[in-house]
Design goal:
Elements (H helix, E strand, L loop, with lengths): L3 E4 L3 H12 L5 E4 L26 H5 L1 H8 L3 E3 L3 E6 L5 E5 L4 E4 L2 E3 L3 E3 L15 E2 L2 H4 L7 E5 L3 H11 L4 E5 L9 H9 L3 E4 L3 E8 L2 E8 L5 E4 L3 E4 L3 E3 L34 E3 L11 H21 L3
Parallel strand pairs: 1-2, 1-7, 2-3, 7-18, 9-16, 10-11, 10-16, 11-12
Antiparallel strand pairs: 4-5, 5-6, 8-17, 13-14, 14-15
Helix pairs in contact: 1-3, 1-7, 5-6
Length: 313
């Protein structure tokens, strides 16, 4: 029986693996069907991780993490977990897609979230080379340049305001004539001199070359096409929370969730189910930053150790 099962191999899962094993749990497996690292491996440059200086990609940042974790005994199983369930005696079952299952005394779920694609031509081709879903991560690369932001919710407007402090101009592109954001956020956007609203506009194509993005073309309400020449395009059209492993056979969730499908946790990353913890982008109000995900993983791991120590069977 596992002391702890960790589902997901991004910064939260790897840090949870490091802390659980170094903290004394003997039998810990991290389930990640692909190579560990998470979404950050797609970033072309990292400048905001503490202690990291010079040019480093997301992949470069994450390469040493698995080796460090495995040094203390973390095992990595390249298996897809289909579901987590819990028996009446408090033991968790990790159900794998191959039909097998594993018993675990505690579980830390770190399956993250996936940014939704806006769906325009060139979005995937230039992702990481001018198309981004994180202004905090990539905004500084466009200091004193013009950028475009796509979206009409709170996140899109808040990120547009953030970018407006760095960039000379921000084109805020939205397919409707009104926003879904909080009224005070909308007011701040409209009051920003270097944010131009491009409303009733549907993104058609991001274009560029070997060096990255050169601009974006949008279709306006009258059917005409407007070309906006910018080196950076930020899309904020929502996230898909990767919560599938928590869905039970009857369609319910194993633990309490928010209306948006995020896991409800307290400050200790505890869910509503004893012994079940959630860390990283999966949990509610996640900042979606590597350093924050790693911190979540450490907190969850320390709590998992305390839980297992207090529930020896």
């Amino acid at each position: 029986m596992l002391d702890c099962a960790i589902i997901g191999g991004g910064p939260a899962g790897l840090t949870a693996g490091l802390y659980t094993t170094r903290g004394g749990l003997d039998n810990v497996i991290m389930y990640e069907k692909g190579l560990p690292g998470g979404q950050i491996t797609m970033s072309s440059e990292i400048e905001n991780y503490p202690g990291v200086t010079g040019h480093i990609t997301g992949m470069d940042l994450m390469i040493p993490w698995p080796e460090q974790c495995q040094k203390f005994g973390l095992k990595h199983e390249m298996a897809e977990v289909s579901r987590i369930s819990r028996r009446e005696d408090g033991i968790f079952l990790v159900h794998k897609s191959d039909g097998t299952s594993e018993e675990a005394k505690s579980v830390i779920v770190c399956t993250g979230s996936t940014p939704k694609r806006a769906g325009f031509t060139g979005e995937d081709t230039f992702f990481g080379r001018g198309v981004s879903t994180c202004a905090t991560c990539d905004g500084f690369f466009y200091k004193n340049k013009e950028v475009a932001v796509i979206g009409g919710g709170d996140t899109a407007l808040e990120e547009a305001l953030y970018l407006a402090k760095i960039c000379t101009k921000v084109y805020l592109i939205h397919r409707r004539d009104g926003f879904r954001a909080a009224p005070n956020t909308i007011a701040r956007v409209k009051a920003s001199e270097n944010i131009e609203l491009v409303l009733n506009a549907v993104p058609e194509e991001v274009f560029g070359g070997a060096m990255g993005v050169d601009g974006i073309r949008v279709k306006l309400q009258d059917g005409s096409i407007r070309q906006i020449d910018v080196p950076g395009v930020f899309t904020f059209v929502g996230h898909n929370v990767n919560n599938q492993v928590l869905i039970q056979e009857d369609g319910s969730f194993l633990c309490e969730m928010t209306p948006w499908g995020e896991v409800k946790v307290d400050l200790n990353m505890k869910t509503s189910i004893p012994g079940l913890f959630a860390a990283g982008d999966l949990r509610e109000s996640a900042p979606k930053q590597v350093v924050c995900a790693a911190g979540d993983g450490a907190v969850a791991a320390l709590q998992a150790i305390a839980y297992v120590d207090g529930h020896q069977l």
